[in-house]
Amino acid sequence: MRPLPKTRYVTVAAETWGLIRGAYLSGLSAPTVAARFGVSVTALRKHAAREGWTKRAFAARQAAARSAPFDAVPAGDAPAGPAAGPPDEAAVLEAWRSPLQIRPDDLARRALANAAHALKAGEGLNAVRLARAATEIARLNSVLEWAGEDPAEAEARFEAGQAMMRMFLRERALNLAQDLVAGRDLPPEYEDLKIELARLAAVRAAAEAAEGAGGEG
């Protein structure tokens, strides 16, 4: 009678189980993950059941999160908006054309934080991509030369320009909606747009007519 094979026990650190969890919930099969991290499929499934990260439980949590109602931000906690009054179109265009300024240190930290969040959510592959992005951003920041401008001031100016653009677009959209509801003609600057839309409609109608004639033939 052959002796039974000896059972081999493997001690796995908590950090490794976190990686196993992320890889498993990212879509890899249990045998694949077990082989990659040197654990048994049985141990993986037991940990998943005990700690609540089976694929069925994860799918249920994701479905519950998607169906949860959106919590509106209380009025007292709303972020401060731009200054009162409609923005000038020239100022909006100037802000829009300004080059984007970044703060590489903050960007790398944000990517790393998102990697940790992705790992907790079971998105192992996405976590790896984000961690690599954070590493590359930090590396490039150490070798590239940056302008002497204060990044914080540049970012604040960029955010102000974005807020100005949003307000400008909303103000224009509201005015157009009011004109249409009241039956008024569009402002003069939209005459070229009306002509172009009419031209496109004529081209579209001609194409449809030609297609219909070809089908009948």
Give a count of the beta strands, DSSP E runs of length 2 or more: 0
Task: Give the C-alpha Rg.
Answer: 29 Å
Number of helices: 9
Biggest beta sheet attributes: none
SSE pattern, N- to C-terminal: HHHHHHHHH
Q: Return the domain count.
A: 2
* Class based on secondary structure composition and strand pairing: mainly alpha
Poorly predicted residue ranges: 70-86
**Molecular shape:** extended
Percent of residues in helical segments? 55-70%
Query: N- to C-terminal separation?
Result: 85 Å
Q: What is the mean pLDDT?
A: 73
Strand content: under 5%
Folded structure, characterized:
By secondary structure, the protein is mainly α. It folds into two domains: 14-60; 84-204, no CATH class. The protein contains nine helices and no strands. The protein has helices spanning 14-25, 30-37, 41-51, 55-67, 89-97, 104-120, 124-143, 151-182, 191-216. The protein starts with 13 loop residues before the first helix and ends with a helix. The model is unreliable at 70-86 (pLDDT under 50).
Write a brief structural summary.
The chain has 9 helices and no strands. By secondary structure, the chain is mainly alpha-helical.
Blueprint of the fold:
Blueprint: H1 14-25, H2 30-37, H3 41-51, H4 55-67, H5 89-97, H6 104-120, H7 124-143, H8 151-182, H9 191-216
Helix pairs in contact: 1-2, 5-8, 6-7
